[in-house]
Structure formats: C-alpha cells, structure tokens
Protein 1
Amino acid sequence: MSTIDKEAMRWLVRNADRSREPAERREFAAWFEADIRHQGAYARAAAIHNALSKATVQESLRPEHEDLKVEWANASWNRANSRRSFLRFGAMAAGVAVIGAAAVFSTLPDESLVVAAKGEFRKVQLADHSVASVNSGSGIEVRLTGGARDITLRHGEAWFDVAKDKTRPFTVAAGGVRARAVGTAFGVRRYANGAEVMVTEGTVEVWSNEATARKTLLQAGDMAFVPNQAGRITVARQPAEIERKLAWKEGKVIFINQTLNEAVADFNRYSLRKIVIMDPQLGGRTLVGQYPIDSPEVFAKDVSAFLEVPLVITADRIMIGSNGAAAKL
C-alpha cells in the first residue's frame, strides 16, 4: 500500500467522525485539493470501504498495517453511519473499463469525416500523423492542404494530439470559435454559445471568429470558455479539472465534487438508456469517484444505496428517487 493510499484510508476513517473540528475539515479539504492523486486514492479507499461494509471478507483483504486495522475498527463502520459519511463527502467509486473504440487508422484521406455514435468514441490518425480522439455523439470534418490543416468540430467534443509542422497551422473551428496550434495537444468541446478549450501540452491560440475579437494564448494546464460572439475570454489554470474532463479518452467518467445533476448529464452523453432524477432535491448532492462510461446502472444503484432512495430501471430509463410521478412513466 502506497503512502498516499494510507493517508486516504486514514482520512476516510477520520471523516466518519461527525464531531470533527472545523480545523480538521479544512485540513482534509487542503489535502484533497492538493493533488489529483489524493482524490484518486480517496476514491479507492471509499470503494474498499463500500465493499467491506456490504460483505463478509477474509481478514487478508482488510488493511494490512496494524495502525490502519485499529483505526478501521475504532470507526464503528455500520452501514447507516457509513452512508452518512459518504453522502457528506460524496465518496463513490467503481472499477475502470474502456468502451468500445474504433481502431486507429493508419492514414485518413486529406479530406474526411469522422463521426462517433452515442456510446462509442473514435481514435483516428490523420494524414499529417496527428491523432484525433472523437467523443461519443461527436463529429469532425478534416481538410488538410499544403498550407493549412483545418478541422471543423461539427458537434460534440474531440481531443487532438497535433503533429509538429510550422508551415501548416492546425486550426479547429467550433461554431464561431477558433483554436490554433502548431504542435501540441488539446481538447475542444462545442456548446450552443461557444466552445471550451483545454490544453494538455504546448500552447494554443483561441479567439472568436468575429473581426473585432482578440486572440488569447493558452498554456498547458489552461482551460477557457470562448464565446461565439467576441467578448472576454476567461482563462483558468486547472490541470486536474482538465484531466477529469478528458477521462472519456480512457473510458471513464470522474467526479470530484460534481453534483448528481452534472454526473447524470455526463452519463447521459454515453448511455442509450437515459438516467432521470425523479426528485429535483437530489440533484445538488455532490459526488467523488470514478465509473466506467458503460456502467450507468452500477452508478445508479450506488446512488440509490447511498442516498437511500428508490431506483426503477426500465428498458429505456433509469429513474433515481421518486416524486410521485414514477408510477406514471
């Protein structure tokens, strides 16, 4: 067990104590936000506790260090208390799986269209040796010429690992938004009123396509929402959030204090079976953890168990909670 995993388990145990002092809560928040690895370790610890609290297991599966065994025992982990603790900190986790992805093509034509159906993603190599990963329900048009590499994000989201070529700028158009790079890696997600650009490597220049728009330079770890209409572009340095948002490339959805509304919206991008929150009051509860993209039922069952609310699964819907309307659907 790594040092970070030990720290995460200790925090999980300490967080079960509802009488913690405010200073200790602040200490936990600082530890949790300091490193994406802390967040992942806490999610793993939550998953281990969830498994142990629901099943009788052999002693060898419990924490192997005596101090952790004592802490674990002293926490009095009964299911009712564990649910309150998990709801408080939103801790949920599951394994990792990858949804079906098309194989990387050796070469695409200079002009081509790549579309990913809902529930899949496509990873393709362009003629210039750049690689494009196209998210579920998304589509791109590719046009490579002797002087330019132009990509149109027709809808959805894509991530680009751009081959270096100073003579041919690589430009992605998403509605009225433009993002340009020479040799770098970045993601673009299109919305009705603009696009979100996330840079994972190198630098990317972004702007609105209006004549009066100013151009803004983003560095690795920066993300920005660029409106279609010329206006202020606010840049935020959030490498951990970029990693979370791009987890779809590995077939995962990751939640780090996202609300249930946001988590359900993420799953509904991929699942043909729509998740519906029947009780609006549940939508603001926050979650921490990760799930395979193709496991909406597992996610919904965990939410139902932790929040102690009804769950109804039909051929085309997964309904969490109840507002009296469930019986009519």
Note: Confidence is low (pLDDT under 50) at residues 51-103, 325-329.
Protein 2
Amino acid sequence: MSENLSSQIEEYLPNNILKFINFASEKAGYLHQELYLVGGVVRDLFLGRPNFDLDLVIEGDAVKLAHILADETRGKLTDHPRFNTANLSYSDFSVDVAMARSEIYSHPGALPTVQPGHLINDLIRRDFSINAMAICLVPDRFGQLIDPHSGKEDIDNKYIRILHSNSFVDDATRILRAIRYEQRLGFKLETETEKSLRYNVSMLDTISHDRLRHELNHILIKEPVPERVFARAEELGVLSKLHPHLKGNGWLSQKFARARTIFRRISPPTIYLCLLAYNFDENELNRFSARLNLPKSLAQAILHAVQLRNRLNELTSEQLQPSDIYHILHTYNNQAIRANLIATDSPIIENHLKTYLDKLYYVKPILTGDNLLAMEIDSGPLLGELLQALHDAKLNGELETREQEEQFAHSFKRGQLNHNRYSPGSPDPT
C-alpha cells in the first residue's frame, strides 16, 4: 500500500502554500485532470529542508490550468504554450506547472523531443531516483506517494542513483548535477551510478557550451559550499573536462571560504569564477572562456583578475600614496580586485586593495569639467591635466572643500603651484 503523506505535507508547507495547492487541485478536478506535486519539493519534504519553489505536473493542459490559477490568485504568470509549461510567481513562493511528458533523445547531448505522457512517463525522464517521486493532490487520494524508482529508500540510504544505464549518455549535465546533490545533501553516489559516471565523463564533450555554463552557474550560485563540488569533481575526473588545468584543491577551498567570510553582503559567483581560473595564463583563460561561452562581462572579470595578479608586485610598498594605488587599480573590474584581495597572502597588498575598494573608488573632486570651464580655464590638454591633478590631490587628502579646490585650480592655471606640495589652507601664491 502506498505511503500517505497528507499529515507531513500539512506540517511542512506554510498555510498559504497549502491553501494554494488545495485550490490548484480543485481547479484541475474541474478540468477532469489529475495534479501531482513532484521533484525537489517531495525530496526536501523527506529531508526536512525548506523548499517553497513548487513543481506541479498535470496529466493535461498545464497552460490552461495556470491561466485559471493566475486569474483567481493574482499570480504573475509566464507561460510557454509551445512546451505546455507555465510559471506562477508570488511574493514568497513560485510554482512551475507542466504537462506530464515523455522524452526521447535523438543522440547523446541533444535536447530531448517531448510529447504528452502520463505521470509515470514524466518520472522516468528525471535525473535521479530522489527527484523522481510525486505526491498525488487529487482530493480522494491527497498525499499518496508515487515512488516507482525507490527514491524514498535512496533518501534513507543517502544515495544518489540514476534511473537507467544510459542516463549520463542521454544527458551528461547529470554528471555535474549528481556531484552537486551528493555534496549538498551529504549523500554518496550509489556504486553503479559512480561507475557509470566515471565511465561516461567524456560525454561532457557532447554538451553545448551554454548548457555547461548553466550547470557551472548552478554550482556557483545555488550551492552553499561550491568548493566541495569542485573537489569531488576533480576526484572523479570531471573537472578536467571543463578545462584541463582546473583544480579543486585545498587552495581553492580556502579561498572560496575566505570570499564568503569577507564579502558576506556581495554576491560571490563572479569572485568564485575569478578564483577558479586565477592561476591560468591568458591563453588558458581564453580557452576556458570559449569552453563555457562566457558573457563578455564575466570573461572580462576573470581576465582582469589574472592581469591584476601579474601586477600585484606594484602594490608591495607600504609607502604608496593613495593616488598611486588608484592609478594601479582603477582600470580593473571591482570583482577582479576583490578576487585578488582574497587570493593574496600579503597583508600590505590586501590593505591597499581594501583601501581602494572601500574608499578610493568613491573619491571624486567637487569641481567638474564644466565648473573649471566656467572659471575660464581653457578646454584642451590643460583641462585634462588639471582634472587629473585635482583628483590626485583629493585622493591624497590634500583637498577637502570646494574653496580649496578652486584655489588649487587657479594656482594650477597660473603654473605657480607644485600640487604635490600643496596643503589645505596654504596661501594662494601671488
């Protein structure tokens, strides 16, 4: 007899979400269609892990049901009629609604051909047994567990297990997902699953650059301790398929952990990516960016991180003026600078990088180019030199007020001031 989880669902889900799924089931019933809660939320219910991003599968018209729900619950609707899927967004949870489907892979690495199916078809297309469970939401069977692949048993045994022998061949992104789930949940790859993964590592070459980048983003963004995933991926021979010189070693683990400690309020994925490629040369970096088809902004950030790494020796002196620090760093992406702050072992360099990020980056003169033109300073090279001199003096703490900046500008114009010796309050030379 199937396990009934109605009481667990009522304890697990907040009242507003429980009310929503009851309402959704009622509306599906009006359409003479059966509705199921599937995937990650079922897994996390057993694990006691909060997960309020719901996946609903309906044996019927998902888009029609989603429109009914959006109209009556004021959810923000995004639908995809071509695929018979939709998403509903609310302030504190989201819902994906999809037609039950079966999938056929024309060749390894291809996106599947999708056609309508039943719940059992939908569950067999999933990646791992722990994600291939469903809970029936039909009122007279509410809470019934549908578990054709023994996912609950694998949760109890803490296993990640594929559903069939060609799983990693059909879609090699499952290799990376298997490692993600293993490390996130503290599980182990089931013996035959690990054998298949090791044997089929080369199938990652069948996956498009964009899909590989998507999976890497999931590791960097969704995993609380991504360095564990990279360490395990290296152990399994997976990491080198993304780039032959990638390492998931102790250095990376130490630096990732440090990034989270230092930059708690800054989203770290770009910093992580810079650290991941930190020890590459520029040729290796170009290969890495091409392998993942990185967006221009990300490719530039990791390039800047490596280029700045090669200049850090210019920041080893404690005697540097703030303007010197600024001129070394201001052309580099701030995330690349943060990555170097994490990577360096020099307290002096770290202090200079922090000074730039926390203070110097924000320093600007009060006077603008228009202000200087209004003071009858000619446009051209002199104006540019004066703006630079003003900024340097401001960086070095030599100017504080607008009056001091105007005095500095007049003196600079007359060529009677060595601005490196200027100090606030000194008399305007006559």
Note: The CA atoms of residues 71 and 425 lie 68 Å apart.
Protein 3
Amino acid sequence: MTFDAPLWLLVALAVPVLFLVQWMVQRRRMRYAISYTNTSVLASVATKPSWRRSVPLALFASAFLVLAMGMAKPQAEVAVPRDEATIILAVDVSGSMQSEDVSPTRMTAAKKAAASFIDKLPERFRIALVSFSDVANVLAQPTTDRSSTQDAIASLEAEGGTAMGEALIQSIELVQEDRDRLALPTPSITPSPEATPSPAPDERERVSAVLLLSDGYNTTGVSPLTAAVQARDLGIPVYSIALGTPEGVVTVEDQFGNQRVLPVPPDYRTLQSIATTTDGDYFEAPTDEDLQSVYASLGERIGYTTRPDEVTYAFAGAGAVLLLLAAATSMLWRSRFP
C-alpha cells in the first residue's frame, strides 16, 4: 500500500500524545489520593481500576489513527475486470490423448474443461482454437461467437503425433493478425514495475495470451522452445498445462497387427520452460478435477487485472465505526464520551 499524501501520517503522532495525557491525569489522581489523610473514607469510596475504563479511549485513538491514514490518501492494488482480450486455446489432439489415466480419457476431460472455461469468460473476450497432432490446425478464428468455438471443441478427436511447436507458431500468427485487425496495443498480462502509469478509468486494456494444453513430447515440426522465444519477443504469455500422469499408457496396433501398450507421460520440463520463457504460468493436471481447477484459475488471472486505486473510503468507514464504538462503550460504561 502507498500513500499520495504521506505527510498526513504525521497526524498519527497525536495518538501517543493522547495516551501520555491520560497517564499524566491518572498520576495526578493517584497523588491526590495519597495526600488525602482520611483513609477510612477514601477506602469506602475507592474502586479498583477496570479494563473497561481504557476501552473507549483505545477505540477513540484507533479511530483517530485510521482516519489519519485515510487523510493520507492510501492507494491499494485492486482487481478490475478486463473489458477485452484475445485468448488462443491450443489443444493437443495427438493419439496419447486417448489415455485413460485422466477419467474418462484425457481427450474427453480436455474438451469438457475447455468448453466450461470459455463459457465463463467475459462476452467481449475473443477466443480462438488451435488443435495439433501431426500438424497444427486453426479450427476457430478469434471471435466472440461462443457457439462456433464450442462446436470446434466438440469436434476434437485424438490421433497422430505432437506438433507442439507448430501449434505455438499458429497461435502467435493468430494473435498478430488479431492485433493488426484491431490496431490496438497489447500490454502484458502482468505489467512490470517499470510500466507506464495506469490508464484512466474509461480507457480499456486489451491483452493477448495463449493457453497451451499438451500431454506428451513434441514429435514433429518446430521446436517448442524456439516458438516460445518468438512469443516472448512479441509479448505473448503462454500458460501451459501438462495433462496426465507419468503412468499414462495407450494401446496401439503395430504394422503387423499386434497390440502394443506404450507409455505416454507428459513432457513436464518443456511445458514449464515454455511458460517461464514467455512470462506465463505452468500447471500440472493429473486428474479431471485438477484440470477444471486450472482453467478456473486461468479465468481469474486473465479475466482481471490489478490497478492502483484510492481506498480512502475504506479507512473513512472503519474510522467512523471505531468512533461509534468508542462513544457507545463510553456512554455504557462511563456515562460520558471519551
């Protein structure tokens, strides 16, 4: 938290002065009590000090301190819903997505989570879908039309290899085309400390990001890390999700017609490197529930941005409540204001 008018914090120095005055008054009363010679009468009217006597003053002092902080115009980072964004969903549809280590299969879980994810995004967010196996294909251009994207997701089927790098290249091209079409700047999702001052409240911030879901190793095409460098240079964060477990297997038929069981563990290291290189985030989803949680988390991160905002109203409200409590306890326990 920061303060636009920090000199007002000096007013808070009055709080220890207030307690010093109370202490001096108490000492004065004690000296008077000691100088009073008729001890029998004094004993009959004397009462033991109670913690209740200090509560109203403590509440009043706290209210004074909180209000002083409010006068200093406190600034805090608050979450603000984004108005616009372009999100590219890059989904692995290689043969390993038939593995059943994620119930009921990796492919079914991925389709279900992706469909739920886009339904919960703001309506003005533009969503595109890229699928990849032996090659990468654009199944849906960036659009706010949810039905077309949902239809594309429903059509996904698992077969073939894994062209992860090609999928990233296709996703980057979609972002670039979308930027050119809209002719708008695209700041990063997490601005650096050196970023320019926050825009005025009526300005809108558009962001672009790639959500990459894969369950295996790249088997063809461009290196994923080479593509990640291109994404980084263009300011496009990639949020990567490793779907499945190291124990995942699929059954395939070889050239002689024999059934073979092949292990299909996710490539955790490459997916993590992609996210790190592009200033995105990396997630692991060994179960259907984990995948749903990952997409929910991504929706929160992408759907909101943080901006500094003055929160004087919060301190004013808290100070008012403390003043009311101070007055109420003083009237109740001492029959007077602090």
Note: Residues 191-204 have pLDDT under 50 and may be disordered.
